[in-house]
Amino acid sequence: MAAEKSELTISRLINAPRSAVWTAWSVREHFEKWWIPKPMECKAVKLDLRPGGGFETLMREGQGPFQPHLEGCFLDIAPEQRIVFTTALAEGWQPIDPWLTLTAIITLEAEAGGTRYAARVMHKTPEDSRKHEGMGFYDGWGSVIDQLGEVAARLA
């Protein structure tokens, strides 16, 4: 179903405690294992989880060179509870012009012995939201949440 508003949401129950999910999100070596759907690889250039901190990832498929994937800025961080980032700003609140402007609010809540991982992704317009959905938002973000769950389960 096409997005009728400028927001997309997705959530999954991860079979690992919030502390393990947080570690998988906040420690670069763990983060790089799940952030981009396999078989692509991720390199985290910046992962400075503090308001104003930089967030930049590269991706590659096969043995090719790493290519830009995402650049953004963290807006709010509450360890083991919430991560908010935007692609409208780079590190230090510097405005940028990304290929897709979004702000994501990630929440982690204890549920049924695991962690409810939810992402609310806001776009500038409903058209941008439909574009993101058409690019495979649900498959892509769903795949990486599943990968996050695998990494977090190993850390638990």
From TrEMBL:
<dbReference type="InterPro" id="IPR013538">
    <property type="entry name" value="ASHA1/2-like_C"/>
</dbReference>
<dbReference type="Pfam" id="PF08327">
    <property type="entry name" value="AHSA1"/>
</dbReference>
<feature type="domain" description="Activator of Hsp90 ATPase homologue 1/2-like C-terminal">
    <location>
        <begin position="15"/>
        <end position="151"/>
    </location>
</feature>
<dbReference type="InterPro" id="IPR023393">
    <property type="entry name" value="START-like_dom_sf"/>
</dbReference>
<protein>
    <submittedName>
        <fullName>SRPBCC family protein</fullName>
    </submittedName>
</protein>
<comment type="similarity">
    <text>Belongs to the AHA1 family.</text>
</comment>
